[in-house]
Amino acid sequence: YKDGSKISNATGLSYVTTESGTYQFKVKTGSGKVVNSNEITIDGYTITYNLNGGTGSISSTTKIQDLSTNITSTIPTKEGYEFLGWGTTASDKEADYSSNATYTANENITLYAIWKKTITVTFVGNGASIDKTSATCDMYNADTNCTVTVPTITRESFTITGFNTDSSATTAQVLSGKTAAVSANTTYYAITSKQI
Length: 196
Fold this sequence. Notes:
Blueprint: E1 21-23, E2 26-28, E3 34-36, E4 40-42, E5 44-50, E6 61-64, E7 69-70, E8 82-87, E9 102-103, E10 109-124, E11 129-130, E12 134-140, E13 146-149, E14 153-154, E15 159-164, E16 179-182, E17 186-193
Parallel strand pairs: 5-10, 10-17
Antiparallel strand pairs: 1-4, 2-3, 5-6, 7-9, 8-10, 10-12, 11-14, 13-16, 15-17
């Protein structure tokens, strides 16, 4: 019996359930006496999916006590980002569960989609020498930027100004050898000057 109602076709000596509820066995003896077992409660747990800025629609998953289940195999999307898997907090940078992974804990859980976007910054010497021509950094989830180390500029007899996204600029947006916060792929040009 489940929640007071007889389970059809459950007439053997054992029964495997895939649903939560309160169960009870009723055994009829040879003399016709019916013996009721103690009630057994099987709990159900909910896996909720938070897309964490992504798009899509993913229904929650129900997990039955002491039985394993699978994390959703549906993969959400977020424009420009790579889906890494599912984490247990919105700020995770690594996934705790991959799509379709096995979940075994007897507890409710909210899983958050983990997103990564790699930003590439290109540096152009623009007549000067620089010690590297590119750098990358990663933005995760709700990050609005990430940080790269800016190369060092050298140019004999020239004043080093810094880097600018305009190759003909006379001022610096970021300084030589420092760091720069970026949110999109960017090209910086070394800016130097020489008084005549």
